[in-house]
Structures are given as structure tokens and as C-alpha cells.
Amino acid sequence: MRTEEEQVEALKRWWQENGKTLLLTLAIALALVFGWRTWQERQATEAANASAMYQNLVQAVSLSLAAEGTDAQVATAEHLASGLKTDYEGSAYATLGSLLMARVAVEQGQLDEALAQLEWVLSHEPSDAQRTVAIMRKAQIMGQQGQSSEALALLDALEPGSFDASYQELRGDLLLSAGKAVEARDAYRLAAEAAETAGVRPLLTMKLENLTAEEG
Q1: For the packed helices 4-65 and 92-107, what is the interaxial angle rounded to 10 degrees?
Q2: Taking the CB of residue 214, how many other CB atoms lie within 10 A of it?
Q3: pTM for this structure?
């Protein structure tokens, strides 16, 4: 049986051989723990800041689109949207901000700027819903620019999912612009069927009734 002195000497030898490695391992583990916590706190702070900036953007856009909207309010919206892109480029708030600014650009008749905003969204890994909305809005603008055929080709490659009613209605609008009234009527009917569970869409109903009456 080992004496107490032998046990102490054995412990000293073990520490000399393994102590530095043990301390290094412990230091790395502590650094990882604190680093992870710091990263989580930073992420939470950035998310809160991005959310607050986005809410301010929503308010600025709402004011700028109102009947009494001013150039200053548009400038404020543009500044906030730019800030989201610069400071929180990878966040959903930045892509949502660009979708809002695309709408503002359309209201101002700046269709090329609206398309640029939508292209920014599509190039930054948006969610499926954001991607669908961006492509549909892009197709709508292309239709306004007289590119109905190209817009329809863009829609043909899209799976609309829960946006089916709006998707089919937009297809109907583009087909009608392209002089394809019969196909437009069919698209409006599909839109009406998809919209049944979402409630009445008066404008869609009017479009369908007008085409049906013309053919009748």
C-alpha cells in the first residue's frame, strides 16, 4: 500500500505531466461558454434594434403613402430602409423593408427603382413567402411596362402556394393585357375558386363578370 508521501509525489508528477493541458482545456471551455453567451446577447440586441427600425419604417411608409404624404416622409422611409440594408443585411427586416420601398417607388411612378428593390430582395435569400411576393410584384411591374409575355414567363416558373388566388388574378391581368381574353377568363375563374375560402374579392368578381359578359 502506498504511503501518504508516495501518493503526494504521484499527484505532483501527474500535475507536472497533465496540469498545463488541463488548464488549457478549461480555459478553452470557459471561452466557448462566454463567447456563446456574448454572441447570443449580441444577436438578441441586433434583432431588437432591427425590429425597432423596421417598425419606424412601416410608420414612415404609411405616412408617405397617405394623401397628405410629403417628400420629407419619403426621404425618412428611404433612410430607414437603407439603414436596414446596411446594418442588418441578412435579416428578414431588411428584405421586408425593401418590399415596402418597392411599393413606395411604384406609387411614385418609379418602376425601375421598384424593380431594383425587388431584385435586392431576391438576391438576399428571402423566405419562401417573401420570394413569392417579390416575384409576383416584379411580374406586375413588368406588365405595367408593357412586358406581359416576359412577366407571364416569370410567373410560370413560380409555385404560388397560399398566394394562389392573387397569383391567378395577376395571370389574368397579364393575359388580358396580352390580348388573350379567353385564357384571362380561365385564370380569373381559378382565382375566384382559390379565393372562396378567403372571402369575397369585389374587383376580381368584376373582372370575371366583365369578360363573361363580353363573351356572352
Answers
A1: 10
A2: 9
A3: 0.75
